[in-house]
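Holo model, iron/sulfur cluster. Inputs:
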Amino acid sequence: MSVGVFNLDIKGNKWDLDREKCIKCGACVAVCPFTALELPEFPEVNEKCIFCNICAMACPVDAIKVVKTNKSAVVDKSTKDISTLSKM
Ligand code: SF4
Ligand code: SF4
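Output:
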């Protein structure tokens, strides 16, 4: 379940899109490693975002601003349950 927005703020960590600058090229969506962006028209960010800044670096017109001030606010650890199986 993902709800895309143009501005995400999770306890001080922010992702902001400037729709005046955005040319809807989709580069940000293509590079996001966490499928946190969708492009229905303008790119929209969802709660999967970990504020890594990769999309902002890929944007050719500097339309995305990412601020990460609170590392503990991001809960994105896909913890693997590693069970040790002993073969008989
Ligand atoms: S900051 Fe990182 S995780 Fe968030 S939308 Fe951009 S590339 Fe994806
Ligand atoms: S990379 Fe920049 S210009 Fe392209 S869709 Fe994303 S925000 Fe808009």
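Residues 75-88 have pLDDT under 50 and may be disordered. The first strand starts at residue 7 and ends at 10.
Archived with the compound record.
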